[in-house]
């Protein structure tokens, strides 16, 4: 974008007044065409950083419970927790209150591009699929959300989630190895190659695709019901947040089994599984069907708050930007 602007401005001296007018129209046409995408990605990034900082402790507890395997025979590892409260107590007792924020830096670094890609791609797809009134129906909003989820899974979520899970899993060892974010990433890449941060890419695509498909579909449907089909009606940010909370709840019950498989595939013991399907089969065989819903309660609390905050913050910032940059 910057290179294009500089090149166009430097070329102005070579043209007549009429040509200059044409050049300016082209420049501002490009700016206008990219304005919404840039704003969507910027606001998505800000939203991601804020929501993950607020809700991270529940993500930490959820991941610990999902990694807490029954009858694990690994050296230095054993089943540690009886439930959510026990996990919180033991974490605070052994590592202090900030132990609940172990791995937060990974998600901060990753949440900005994740949310930027999510909202940016969704708005691009939405712009191509809206009807003559500017609305999406249930199926088109589902497809737009699906596309956004797949893109964020590939470009941001998989490496971020893999590193996060390995950091949290590392704490379960009697002698943790990772001394910090950069040391941990270097160690993972050195030992496993770049593919080491792309463990579990298939279940992550499945998880994020279904996540965003359900969330955006529910939110867009509820917004359309609120507006009564009139796209000119503004949905207040608090209402958007409420709709987001409902969407988050729906997505938790819809794809927690995928999240459990994803977490196992990204842990330090991922080598035990031949592939995603093998991981699911082993969980079913060794731990039973209820194991696919491990961490549901803390995930429900985090995701409901997460999605509610995301949509509320995003709509609040979008409302402000539309006023200062109409």
From TrEMBL:
Solcar repeats lie at residues 35-128, 139-225, 235-320. One of its GO terms (molecular function) is ATP:ADP antiporter activity. Its main location: mitochondrion. It is found in: Mitochondrion membrane. It holds the Pfam family Mito_carr. It is a multi-pass membrane protein. Keywords: Membrane, Mitochondrion, Repeat, Transmembrane, Transmembrane helix, Transport. InterPro entries: ADT_euk_type, MCP, MCP_dom_sf, MCP_transmembrane, TXTP-like. GO terms for cellular component: mitochondrial inner membrane. GO terms for biological process: mitochondrial ADP transmembrane transport; mitochondrial ATP transmembrane transport; mitochondrial citrate transmembrane transport. Belongs to the mitochondrial carrier (TC 2.A.29) family. This is Citrate transport protein. It comes from Frankliniella fusca.
């Amino acid at each position: 974008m910057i290179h294009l602007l500089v090149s166009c401005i430097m070329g102005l001296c070579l043209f007549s007044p009429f040509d200059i007018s044409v050049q300016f129209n082209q420049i501002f046409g490009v700016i206008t065409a990219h304005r919404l995408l840039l704003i969507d990605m910027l606001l998505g990034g800000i939203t991601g950083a804020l929501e993950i900082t607020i809700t991270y402790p529940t993500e930490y507890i959820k991941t610990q419970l999902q990694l807490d395997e029954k009858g694990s025979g690994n050296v230095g590892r054993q089943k540690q927790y009886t439930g959510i409260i026990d996990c919180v107590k033991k974490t605070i007792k052994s590592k202090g209150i900030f132990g609940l924020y172990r791995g937060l830096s990974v998600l901060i670094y990753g949440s900005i591009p994740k949310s930027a890609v999510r909202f940016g791609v969704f708005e691009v797809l939405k712009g191509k699929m809206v009807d003559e009134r500017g609305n999406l129906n249930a199926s088109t909003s589902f497809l737009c959300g699906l596309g956004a989820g797949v893109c964020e899974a590939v470009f941001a979520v998989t490496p971020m989630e893999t590193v996060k899970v390995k950091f949290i899993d590392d704490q379960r060892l009697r002698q943790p190895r990772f001394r910090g974010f950069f040391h941990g990433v270097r160690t993972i890449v050195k030992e496993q190659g770049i593919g080491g941060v792309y463990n579990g890419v298939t279940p992550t695509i499945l998880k994020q695709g279904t996540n965003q498909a359900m969330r955006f579909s529910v939110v867009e449907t509820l917004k359309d019901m609120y507006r009564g089909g009139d796209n000119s009606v503004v949905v207040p940010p608090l209402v958007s947040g409420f709709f987001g909370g409902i969407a988050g709840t729906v997505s938790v019950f819809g794809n927690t089994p995928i999240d459990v498989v994803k977490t196992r595939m990204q842990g330090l013991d991922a080598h035990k599984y031949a592939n995603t399907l093998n991981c699911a089969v082993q969980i079913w065989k060794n731990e039973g069907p209820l194991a696919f819903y491990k961490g549901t309660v803390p995930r429900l609390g985090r995701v409901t708050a997460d999605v509610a905050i995301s949509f509320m913050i995003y709509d609040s910032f979008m409302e402000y930007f539309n006023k200062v940059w109409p």
